[in-house]
Amino acid sequence: QDNSILVEKDTGRRYWFDEATAVTLSDDFSSDNWTDVGSNGVTGGHLQLNPFLNGTDNTTYRAITALSDSAFVMRFSFTPVYTGHSSGNSSQIVWFGLASGTGNSASTQNWVILGIEGWTTAERKLGGYAINNGTAVSQFPSSSNFMSFTSGTTYYCQITRDVDDFTFNIYSDSAYSTQVGTVTRTVSGITGLDTLVGTNWIISKSND
């Protein structure tokens, strides 16, 4: 029971139960509550993000109650599918996570976001990004990638904030128990995260 104390008679140990933190938002994509700038958005019960490389902005976003500037947990599942390039020398990249505004990947706003990058069949990576106002997510280096992904496999991401530490944990199961990748980014000055956003790399290349 919340706000109660349990004392073990044999050990004298005391356990205090606090009230659970309310969930800020849960979305099963059964209806479309997102704003779509371009071609990405809710379809068929999921949020679809395509890494168009045709120079167009295909950002989709949803406003939420601003999260704490010191602690939160965000969870979501995702299934990256790599379709390959026809030619060219640029990766296909989409990002999904939190931002301090509704701007696209070229915007200099606060970001805490997972990047999904496809370069070749052998080079498919996930990256964890925590960026304050000084840099657009599209300018962040691929060195932020921390693990490979298998095309068509569903993963489960948990992003945890502890003041200036942002930990990205990737799991292979919906119970979030089998961890397959992790990275922690330490960045100060990230405030006002009030938007869920999915966005693409806005660049025009031949490998659309």
In short:
The protein has 208 residues and is mostly beta strands.
Descriptive keywords:
single chain, 208 residues, mainly beta, seven-stranded antiparallel beta sheet, four-stranded antiparallel beta sheet
Give the topology.
Blueprint: E1 4-7, E2 14-17, E3 35-36, E4 41-43, E5 46-48, E6 60-63, E7 71-78, E8 92-99, E9 111-120, E10 123-131, E11 145-148, E12 155-162, E13 165-171, E14 179-186, E15 195-200
Task: Describe the protein.
The protein is mainly β and 208 residues long. Helices cover 0% and strands 42% of the residues. The strands form 4 sheets. Strands 3-6-15-8-9-10-11 form a 7-stranded antiparallel sheet, with no helix packed on it. A 4-stranded antiparallel sheet has the order 7-12-13-14, with no helix packed on it. A two-stranded antiparallel ribbon has the order 1-2. Strand 12 and strand 13 form a beta hairpin. The radius of gyration is 19 Å and the shape is globular.
How many H/I helical runs? 0
Strands of the biggest beta sheet: in what spatial order? 3-6-15-8-9-10-11
Distance between the termini: 55 Å
Strand content: 35-45%
Indicate the mean pLDDT: 83
- Global Rg: 19 Å
